[in-house]
């Protein structure tokens, strides 16, 4: 009893209360999961009222156990299943289960259908598969509700004709046993009466015929006749037009052809013809064009007809275990194929076309004789399994690692291939390991390595084109996916071609970054949007970019491509193409002509005998300089890149028009140079440094890795450049040229840093350059809190950045975290970022005191790209538009024939800081104004005609400050020259404006060639006759040639004196030219103060103090001009003049009053002045 209770308890856990949705019965069910319980069923089950009972594989010998009553169980039972037991009969009382609709007694030991079953007239689903039934009683006809009858795996020979009374049957399972074989030989006619039949399985019998009445089965969808022995198939079968799936494997061995009726079944989508004797796929099968699954395994296929490829809808094609030696051409038309089984054939190779089957998930090629897989197999992006066991492969295509799904499924099967070492060893470790190895090999064994730069205006379509090239399909970028600064991507169109694509963001703010990545050894792809093109837009879309590339990189290779052709008509495209080529050629011809003209001019000059001594009227700019200039121009002409003579046209939208041609063109271009074999250890070195987690590494660190790789490989560095440094330089330069790393070999400051992962550089730029900065950079309280930054402070800093380019360390930290450019905004990371920005001359650092006064006591840097576009308000006061009469003004002009190179002015502005750091400079987008001692410097960008000029002017009142003017101007020149190194082919002219002409008030002064800046001032010659406008005048030499500081310049005073005299005489002229109406002005602004300064002696301090100049200032003047007394006085007087309110007359009267005071008593002087100036 207690045992029984225990059993009952253990079964109780499987009693499931009826849940909602179980109908209105509300009775529980006993559902024992398969394998969960073995043994007998306790009696109390029969006292329950259950709805469903499932007793699978319990080893029951009888049911009910040991009795004939099943109690209350039948009352509500609708579903009973006792599969996999040892039942041989059912008790009579089972017939009481009148509500039963589903009865499943498969895998028992019944020799006949238990009689009570015939009484269950509500049965809908009867399953007696795999018993030992030998016959079916005619009473089966009573089961009129049957929909599913499963009698598979029994020993039936025939079926009673009464079966056809079960008219509702839809699914009929009559498969024989595998052994002993099923015994039905004649197709049971009764089946043909089941008009509702949808599914019929008669496999593994010995059926020989399909009778004419089979045509009645108009609803039949699936027919399985596997392993029968068909000899006769009635044509009537063609009436079964709903048939979708037929399995005839092994059923046609006695027939020489496929029954013709089959070919009328147009909707057929699955056909299995395995295990027959076909030597070819019957051509009629190829007419069943809706076929999706076709299996012809284990036949004698010797060849395939190309007609097979008419089956465009095929998804599954199994042709394994045949004798195929090749696949016919045209495989690519099976675009929907997902499964292709070709194992155990005699294939020796695969057509490349297979790589077009983009949907393929399974490719079985095991047990063939394939020696090589197609190179482009990586295009099969959907592949999850590739079986190439037992073939003749020696290696696998190097780009296979792109097959991500294959790796994640570990789906590459490569056993039993004569793989060369180390493929074999590594392939045994698994697909992912093999793929990692392939990446490494590609890095080392590439024949061609390139950097490819995609450049062009904003939204030109660069990124979309890159994606189309890399993915082979259209992936247009969305509006909010504009490239942020730049992206680098590795493109490997072929296994031994390695291209690092630099995809530039086209927004103008990102141009600050471009020049860092431009280099002559790259292939430049200039991209533009055809729809935006017009002749007027040529400069912005094409001309400007072409120039930026050509001026910078000698011999740069340039390719031009227009996108968006899907939105243009053919005619439009053609017209634009011609227009662009015309303008490209015209501009290039103009540039060349300019250079050639200049060359001719210099040659003529050089041919003149007098050129030996003098050129252009200026001594010492002689033969040497001219020759140098000539050489430079000739070099410029000869090394100019060839302008593109072709314009490619593509659409990156769906149809990808022109993309594959363009891709082939690029590949051809990239492979057109001879393959370069380089030592393996170069790439081992690269692999090693790429593993270093730091953002950047120093040259020394790189050296450490390099030496250890060399030592491991027993390589001597002597062969490679002599010293380890030279060897490493060679390697780094090479890796830079291929875009793998970034290393600036010829920049003294930057060469100590190796950007082993160029993304670090991109991230640095991203911290600051962002086209939608104002919008994207918003305060977030959480972030603010974690960085201890308050909202009001943040707002102020953001405005300071956007309006004045001032970036504080705190804001930088905020940006780095906000943009997720770093995981930890540690101080060392901030230091690194700031120091790199400074090294790259992207910004300059404010003096601590200035920074504190302006924004913050923290570190502050300033980016010229964000300076205000307005000139400062008090500009006129600091730099009057008209040069005040007594001012010396030294002017240098930097002339570009077109726009200045991108970023030139901004970078110049940064570089000026090298010598203006201690001045309070004022900046705006087009200018810098700085005061240094008593001199003022103005550097301003102007558009002039077609070109751009940067005007560098410096003013001072005192002749002795001319040294400082030169120092300022020469420093600006030096900074500019430094920048020009980046643009070696840039045509730029420097000129010096004749100060003499300026003093004379000429509107179009003489301009001296830039060579004057390179000359030392002629010794002992204090004046020169060199001004075109005044050939007879003597021009102070220090107006034309740079004057050194006193310590380094012999007779410095004499040069200065010549300048002062020149000023004096020009003042005299000015005085003379001024009418009597402005006598007081003549006195104050003309020669008057100068006369006065030379006549005053010790009393000068008293005079100036009484005029209101503070004593400290006088003391300063004394210190500044210890020997030059008149200069000192003059400066004091001018300061008084400019700093005092009142009309000129009032000022003159005030001056004369002081001079006439008793203790000063310069009455005589006053009289003289009154007379001289008519006062
Ligand atoms: N119809 C059409 N649209 C294109 C084509 N190429 C690009 N586009 C669209 O043009 C816009 C700009 O394309 P992108 O590829 O982002 O251009 P980009 O030059 O990379 O732009 P930036 O990174 O901002 O410099 C996107 O909206 C694209 O979807 C094309 O060939 N046809
Ligand atoms: Mg882009």
Automatic annotation (TrEMBL):
<dbReference type="InterPro" id="IPR003591">
    <property type="entry name" value="Leu-rich_rpt_typical-subtyp"/>
</dbReference>
<feature type="domain" description="Death">
    <location>
        <begin position="1089"/>
        <end position="1157"/>
    </location>
</feature>
<dbReference type="Pfam" id="PF08477">
    <property type="entry name" value="Roc"/>
</dbReference>
<dbReference type="GO" id="GO:0007165">
    <property type="term" value="P:signal transduction"/>
</dbReference>
<keyword id="KW-0677">Repeat</keyword>
<feature type="domain" description="Roc">
    <location>
        <begin position="443"/>
        <end position="637"/>
    </location>
</feature>
<protein>
    <submittedName>
        <fullName>Malignant fibrous histiocytoma-amplified sequence 1</fullName>
    </submittedName>
</protein>
<dbReference type="InterPro" id="IPR027417">
    <property type="entry name" value="P-loop_NTPase"/>
</dbReference>
<dbReference type="GO" id="GO:0000166">
    <property type="term" value="F:nucleotide binding"/>
</dbReference>
<dbReference type="Pfam" id="PF23598">
    <property type="entry name" value="LRR_14"/>
</dbReference>
<dbReference type="InterPro" id="IPR055414">
    <property type="entry name" value="LRR_R13L4/SHOC2-like"/>
</dbReference>
<dbReference type="InterPro" id="IPR000488">
    <property type="entry name" value="Death_dom"/>
</dbReference>
<dbReference type="GO" id="GO:0009966">
    <property type="term" value="P:regulation of signal transduction"/>
</dbReference>
<keyword id="KW-0433">Leucine-rich repeat</keyword>
<dbReference type="InterPro" id="IPR011029">
    <property type="entry name" value="DEATH-like_dom_sf"/>
</dbReference>
<dbReference type="GO" id="GO:0005737">
    <property type="term" value="C:cytoplasm"/>
</dbReference>
<keyword id="KW-0547">Nucleotide-binding</keyword>
<dbReference type="InterPro" id="IPR001611">
    <property type="entry name" value="Leu-rich_rpt"/>
</dbReference>
<dbReference type="InterPro" id="IPR050216">
    <property type="entry name" value="LRR_domain-containing"/>
</dbReference>
<dbReference type="Pfam" id="PF13855">
    <property type="entry name" value="LRR_8"/>
</dbReference>
<dbReference type="InterPro" id="IPR032675">
    <property type="entry name" value="LRR_dom_sf"/>
</dbReference>
<dbReference type="InterPro" id="IPR020859">
    <property type="entry name" value="ROC"/>
</dbReference>
């Amino acid at each position: 009893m207690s045992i029984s209770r225990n059993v009952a308890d253990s079964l109780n856990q499987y009693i499931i209360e009826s849940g909602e949705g179980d109908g209105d019965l509300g009775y529980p069910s006993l559902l024992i999961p398969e394998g969960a319980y073995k043994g007998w069923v306790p009696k109390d089950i029969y006292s329950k009222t259950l709805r469903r009972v499932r007793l699978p594989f319990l080893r029951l010998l009888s049911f009910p156990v040991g009795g004939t009553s099943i109690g209350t169980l039948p009352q509500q039972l609708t579903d009973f299943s006792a599969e996999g037991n040892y039942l041989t009969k059912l008790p009579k009382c089972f017939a009481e289960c009148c509500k039963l609709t589903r009865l499943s007694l498969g895998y028992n030991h019944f020799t006949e259908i238990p009689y009570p079953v015939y009484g269950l007239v509500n049965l809908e689903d009867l399953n007696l598969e795999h018993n030992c039934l030998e016959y079916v009683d005619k009473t089966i006809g009573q089961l009129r509700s049957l929909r599913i009858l499963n009698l598979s795996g029994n020993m039936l020979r025939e079926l009673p004709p009464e079966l056809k009374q079960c008219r509702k049957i839809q699914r009929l399972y009559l498969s024989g046993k595998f052994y002993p074989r099923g015994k039905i030989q004649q197709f049971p006619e009764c089946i043909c009466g089941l008009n509702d039949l949808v599914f019929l399985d008669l496999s593994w019998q010995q059926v020989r015929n399909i009778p004419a009445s089979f045509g009645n089965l108009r609803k039949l969808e699936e027919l399985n006749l596997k392993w029968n022995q068909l000899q006769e198939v009635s044509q009537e079968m063609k009436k079964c037009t709903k048939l979708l799936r037929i399995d005839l494997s092994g059923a046609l061995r006695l027939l020489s052809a496929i029954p013709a009726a089959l070919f009328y079944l147009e909707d057929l989508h699955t056909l299995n013809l395995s295990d027959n004797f076909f030597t070819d796929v019957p051509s009629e099968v190829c007419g069943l064009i809706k076929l999706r699954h076709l299996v012809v395994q284990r036949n004698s296929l010797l060849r395939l007809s190309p007609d097979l490829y008419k089956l465009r809808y095929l998804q599954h094609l199994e042709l394994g275990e045949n004798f195929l030696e090749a696949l016919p051409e045209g495989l690519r038309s099976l675009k929907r194929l997902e499964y292709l089984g070709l194992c155990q054939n005699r294939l020796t190779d695969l057509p490349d076309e297979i790589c077009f089957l983009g949907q393929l998930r399974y490719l079985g090629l095991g047990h063939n004789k394939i020696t090589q897989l197609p190179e482009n197999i990586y295009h099969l992006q959907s592949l999850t399994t590739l079986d190439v066991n037992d073939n003749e492969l020696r290696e696998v295509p190097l780009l296979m690692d792109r097959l991500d799904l294959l790796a994640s499924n570990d789906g590459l099967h490569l056993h039993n291939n004569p793989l060369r070492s180390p493929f074999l060893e590594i392939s045994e470790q698994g697909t992912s390991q093999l793929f990692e190895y392939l990446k490494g090999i590609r890095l080392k064994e590439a024949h061609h390595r390139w950097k490819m730069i995609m450049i062009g205006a904003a939204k030109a379509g660069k990124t979309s084109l890159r994606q189309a090239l890399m993915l082979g399909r259209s992936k247009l970028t969305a509006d909010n996916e504009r490239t942020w600064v730049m992206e680098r991507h590795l493109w490997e169109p072929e296994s031994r071609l390695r291209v690092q694509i630099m995809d530039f963001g086209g927004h103008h703010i990102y141009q600050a970054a471009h020049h860092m990545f431009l280099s002559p050894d790259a292939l430049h792809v200039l991209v533009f949007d055809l729809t935006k093109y017009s002749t007027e837009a040529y400069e912005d879309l094409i001309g400007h970019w072409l120039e930026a590339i050509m001026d910078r990189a000698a011999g740069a290779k340039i390719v031009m491509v227009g996108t968006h052709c899907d939105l243009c008509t053919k005619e439009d495209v053609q017209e634009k193409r011609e227009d662009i080529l015309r303008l490209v050629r015209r501009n290039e011809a103009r540039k060349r002509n300019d250079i050639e003209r200049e060359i001719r001019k210099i040659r003529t000059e050089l041919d003149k005998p007098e050129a030996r001594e003098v050129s252009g009227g200026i001594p010492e700019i002689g033969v040497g300089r001219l020759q140098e200039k000539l050489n430079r121009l000739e070099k410029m002409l000869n090394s100019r890149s060839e302008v593109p003579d072709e314009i490619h046209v593509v659409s990156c939208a769906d149809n990808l028009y022109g993309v594959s041609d363009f891709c082939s063109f690029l590949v051809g271009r990239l492979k057109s140079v001879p393959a370069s074999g380089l030592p393996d250890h170069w790439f081992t070195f690269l692999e090693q440094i790429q593993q270093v987690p730091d953002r950047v590494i120093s040259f020394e660190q790189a050296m450490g890795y390099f030496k250890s790789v060399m030592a491991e490989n027993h390589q001597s560095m002597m062969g490679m450049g002599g010293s380890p440094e030279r060897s490493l330089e060679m390697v780094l330069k090479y890796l830079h040229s291929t875009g793998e790393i970034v290393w600036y070999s010829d920049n003294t400051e930057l060469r100590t840093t190796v950007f082993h992962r160029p993304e670090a550089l991109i991230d640095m730029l991203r911290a600051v350059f962002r086209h939608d900065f104002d919008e994207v950079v918003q305060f977030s309280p959480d972030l603010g809190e974690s960085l201890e930054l308050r909202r009001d402070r943040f707002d102020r800093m953001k405005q300071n950045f956007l309006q004045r380019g001032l970036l504080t360390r705190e804001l930088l930290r905020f940006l780095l975290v906000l943009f997720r450019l770093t995981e930890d905004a540690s101080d060392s990371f901030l230091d690194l970022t700031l120091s790199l920005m400074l090294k790259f001359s992207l910004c300059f650092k404010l003096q601590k005191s200035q920074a504190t006064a302006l924004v913050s006591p923290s570190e502050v840097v300033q980016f010229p790209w964000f300076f205000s576009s307005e000139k400062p308000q008090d500009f006129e006061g600091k730099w009057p538009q008209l040069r005040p009469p007594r001012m010396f003004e030294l002017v240098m002009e930097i002339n570009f024939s077109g726009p200045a190179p991108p970023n030139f002015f901004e970078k110049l502005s940064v570089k000026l800081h090298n010598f203006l750091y201690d001045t309070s400079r004022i900046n705006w987008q087009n200018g810098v104004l700085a005061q240094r001692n008593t001199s003022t410097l103005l550097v301003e960008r102007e558009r002039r005609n077609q070109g751009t000029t940067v005007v560098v002017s410096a003013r001072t009142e005192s002749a002795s400050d001319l040294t400082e003017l030169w120092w300022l101007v020469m420093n600006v020149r030096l900074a500019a020259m430094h920048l020009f190194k980046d643009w070696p082919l840039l045509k730029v002219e420097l000129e010096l404006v004749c100060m003499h002409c300026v003093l004379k008030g000429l509107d179009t002064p003489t301009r001296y060639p830039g060579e004057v800046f390179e000359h030392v001032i002629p010794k002992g010659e204090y004046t020169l006759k060199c001004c075109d406008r005044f050939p007879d005048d003597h021009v102070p030499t220090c107006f034309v040639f740079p004057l050194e500081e006193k310590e380094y310049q012999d007779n410095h005073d004499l040069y200065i004196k010549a300048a002062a005299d020149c000023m004096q005489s020009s003042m005299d002229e000015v005085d003379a030219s001024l009418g009597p109406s402005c006598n007081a002005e003549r006195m104050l602004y003309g020669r008057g103060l100068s006369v006065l300064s030379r006549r005053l002696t010790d009393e000068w301090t008293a005079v100036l103090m009484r005029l209101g100049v503070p004593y400290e200032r006088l003391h300063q003047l004394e210190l500044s001009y210890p020997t030059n007394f008149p200069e000192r006085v003059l400066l004091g007087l001018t300061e008084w003049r400019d700093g005092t309110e009142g009309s000129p007359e009032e000022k003159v009267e005030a001056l004369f009053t002081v001079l006439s005071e008793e203790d000063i008593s310069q009455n005589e002087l006053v009289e003289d002045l009154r007379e001289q100036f008519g006062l």
